[in-house]
Design a protein that fits this description.
The complex is a heterodimer of chains A (394) and B (470).
Chain A lengths: L4 E3 L3 H6 L4 H17 L1 H6 L11 E5 L16 E4 L9 E2 L16 H4 L2 E5 H12 L2 H5 L5 E13 L9 H19 L15 E11 L1 E9 L6 H21 L2 E9 L3 E4 L1 H6 L8 H15 L6 E8 L8 H14 L2 E7 L12 H4 L7 E6 L5 H9 L12
Helix pairs in contact in A: 10-11
Chain B lengths: L6 H17 L7 E6 L1 H9 L10 H15 L8 E4 L4 E6 L4 H20 L11 H17 L4 H14 L15 H12 L31 H8 L5 H22 L1 H18 L4 H15 L8 H14 L11 H12 L2 H8 L2 H6 L2 E7 L2 E7 L5 H10 L9 E8 L4 E6 L8 H15 L3 E7 L2 E8 L2 E6 L2
Parallel strand pairs in B: 1-3, 7-8
Antiparallel strand pairs in B: 2-3, 4-5, 6-7, 8-9, 9-10
Helix pairs in contact in B: 1-4, 2-3, 4-10, 4-11, 5-6, 5-9, 6-9, 6-17, 8-9, 10-12, 12-13, 14-16
Classes of the chains: A alpha/beta (394), B alpha+beta (470).
Chain lengths: 394, 470
Amino acid sequence: MADTIFRPYKASDAEHSDRSAGDRMRHREKVRQSIRENIADIIAEESIIGRDHDKIIKVPIRGIKEYRFVYGDNARGVGQGEGDLKPGDVIENNSGQGRGNGQAGDQPGVDYYETDITIEELINIMFEDLELPDLERKRLREIETERHSRRKGYRPVGIRLRLDKRRTVKEKLRRRFASAKTSGENDGRFPFHQDDLVYRHVTTDVKKESNAVVLCLMDTSGSMDTMKKYLARSFFFLLCQFVSSKYRSVEVIFIAHHTQASEVNEEEFFSKGESGGTLISSAYEKALEIIAARYHPSLWNVYAFHCSDGDNFDADNDTAFNRAQELCKVCNLFGYGEIKPSGHYAYESSMMTIFRKLMEPNFLTIRIERKEDVWPSFRTFLSKDRAPDDRTGS
Amino acid sequence: MRSLYSVADLEDWDHRIFEKVQEFGLDCYPQQFEIYDHNQMLSSMAYSGVPSHYPHWSYGKTYEKQKTLYDYGASGLPYEMVINSNPALAYLMRDNSLLLQILTIAHVYGHNDFFKNNFTFRTTRAEYSIDTFKAHGDRVRSYVEDPSIGLGKVEKLLDAAHAVSLQCRRNLAIRKRSPEEERNVLIEASLPPSDPFQSIHSRKASNQPNLNKIPPVPDEDLLLFIRDNNPHLSGWEKDLITIVHEEAQYFIPQIETKIMNEGWATFWHKRILDSLDLPQDLQWEFIVRHNQVVRPFNGGLNPYNIGLAIWQEICNTPSPEPVPGKDGASGRLFEVRESDRDNSFLRRHLTEKLIRDLNLFEYETRGDQTIVQNVADETGWRNVKETLLKNAGMNSFPVIKVEDADFGHNHTLYVVHYHDGRDLQLEYAEKTLAYLNQLWGGEVVLETALDGKRYLLIYNDGGFSTKALQ
């Protein structure tokens, strides 16, 4: 006779037996952390720049592999075929079904995997990662955009218009019954009294909005090649994403300049290629003009960023310096990014030396050489953001 | 579907199956079945079926992976899971059909017999395994909850210990000598052979063995060696290392007998069900299910397929010498089941004919391509077999031994990879060395070969570096 025991299924056990929950949560934390640690590489991938928010991208997960000593590529394996293979045949590489003997997961190829993530999620992780406590505590400049009324309870006083007739009659009936009980009289006219009146109470809600405008200034002179523009674009992308995560409504203005500046749309901004020299001051003047006309600093948080390769006409440098100083006064943050893919220093002039003398606290210069520099420089840029209250002259 | 049969039906079928089990001479631990739904099954799979296993994020990762595969229909759930314990514990899937439950019960008895009788499992102490896992789980949890230790430290140590947990002795049937015994063996070996004419012969130079060396002979148990020789480890760290080592030891027999064990259980479930006189509808379903289990995976290896084919071959081959007490063929079956592991099983019983029948081939991966190297023809089958043996059981993991704990009198741990023509995967080697470095608390040097040249892979405070050996 067998001593076999059968333990039947118990739904209550099943409900309480999610014992992997803790380990799953810890694993997800590690995935998220891995994304965070590799964010600079992910940002450097071209594919995410300028994509829609709900676009899903694949992010390789590193750092949560389970490493062991394993054999490399020159270790051969054995598989089962259908009898028609010859030495030298190339078979497809996705056998899928546990090649090797049950130890899948320890093999390097199998352990590597990607996770899907939306750009939105990625951006959230990115900004979580910024860890800029100053920025979090800062009061954003808000303006009243909307007033609307909302009912909030009842009161014995108010204007005629808000008299609640139903409740007023109820009050009167209540008083009438009460008086009938005490005095015994129950006939004749029973008029409304001041105490019966019930008014709806209405309060006014004021909705405040924080508005921001991002001014993207870019040098489109002949010396800005595709690579430089791409780096500039990555930076602008991050800036716009960041600003829109902090403010309710964000406008983005694109100013392209060579010797003259003009406001353009996004597509033109990134595709425009013009030859000729560079007058940086023209772009700053245009920016100041637009700010004065449309985005007064008392109502708007202004962020301006200028990307150039620093190849400016010498004669313009002083003017550019003065205009930059003026921009600092009206902007939350004004940055100048000099894009010089490595190897370009020796024979090109640089605005960096000029701007070194500009001591405004909300001004920052950044040098971007490679794709990998975009994220770190963005971090440094944002750490300079100053509180709106600090500003002088606005 | 599940209302079509009750637990009582299962018990009925189990009686009939068990009669056959006894008739065929299988020798099992008492068996317990638990009926699980698919969520419990997934959870249980992530922990290799072990109840109250200690927590670690890697099991969460396994769960997510399996759940994803299951949800997208890329893989089904196993019909059953058996744990090597006494009494043996197995899980049945609640939503399986009656036939699948019958097949599974028969299959489980096959595994159960194998666990009880195969020599590799002798060291797993099946009576205590469930309690041991429980105790391990409780201890790890207590360290996690201890405010002076906490999850972060426990996890960091477990990550490192897991990385080298399989760098240990493979044949646990051989007793490990203590360092003291090893030294005595060394001394005896170095003594000159006794010479009856020693008074007239000049004395042979005996080369004194270096008895101060730690370890006296290369040691394959990396975790245990580190536990016993790193004085900076605190008690809980040593305990965690022991836990990880013991768990690896418990699973090694299963790694070592994957093909044999699955083949054995499949062989018996087929025999038992064939002898049960199933009603026709169940018989049809049995044929379909059985073939799903044993069908070859194109490009991969199905241990059920290969194992079953070899067991059938053994069964059909007349025994060279009769085994006392058992009738010829099955006597031999039982003998092989007791004394082989995948490596010897394949070496002895995987014939040229079987390799051809199973359409086995050897491949090599170059970049993204998998290229066929040898097929089961007259010249190639030996190579196919050799490669299969190299990937059988623990042979799919590199052999790495501790050579010296004080290399260059520098407290450097010197480990040697016993190269057999297969190079290490370098990225994995680097990361694993980092874990070794963490466990050892000092510099770690790994001697290995890459592309035919000897190299030292070094990991110390300055990070990873390599050095070519002349």
